[in-house]
Design brief:
39% helix; 5 strands; 166 residues; 5 helices
Length: 166
């Protein structure tokens, strides 16, 4: 299977690359060309194809999606614990453009493919809001009650994907 991993050099992306390694898939990594991402790519993307770009740009999605069967969409501007900068709290407009605008561009690009790729979107547990007082687990039927801006944007991206029918 041809698999595109977005945000391939973030924490979850690197774990995903490791999980896919040696399973016979052709993996393509899509991430922004930051110095740290290029360094991580040299170390962790052995045998993977690299496509550098920006999830906010339709043309970058078209290039990255060519020939892909599945998109594992992990790209995000995350809160302050990330190794990349800027952080979602400090750059709200940029964060919204990446999460919501990026999902819009992904959906548009996938719908233009001859055979649309399937999409796996990780989102965030935080879309469920404050749940520490509730017994686990959270499920797809649990209500979305995001509190912080990052979670609100992830919930919006989830809704866009659900509404797309992809």
């Amino acid at each position: 299977m041809n698999i595109l991993v977005t945000g391939a050099f973030g924490n979850i992306g690197l774990s995903t690359l490791q999980a896919l390694a040696g399973r016979g898939h052709r993996v393509r990594c899509f991430d922004v060309p930051l110095r740290i991402n290029k360094r991580l790519a040299r170390r962790h993307a052995i045998g993977c194809e690299l496509v550098w770009g920006d999830v906010r740009r339709f043309v970058d999605w078209q290039r990255a999606l060519k020939g892909q069967d599945l998109v594992i969409h992990l790209a995000a501007l995350v809160p302050e614990l990330s190794h990349t900068r800027p952080h979602s709290e400090a750059e709200m407009a940029l964060s919204h453009d990446i999460h919501v605008g990026g999902m819009r561009q992904l959906i548009l690009a996938v719908t233009t493919m001859p055979k649309p790729a399937r999409i796996v979107f990780t989102s965030s547990l935080h879309v469920h809001g404050l749940t520490q007082h509730l017994p686990p687990p959270r499920t797809v039927t649990s209500p979305l009650q995001p509190v912080e801006p990052h979670a609100v944007q992830q919930a919006m991206a989830e809704q866009l994907l659900k509404s797309s029918g992809l």
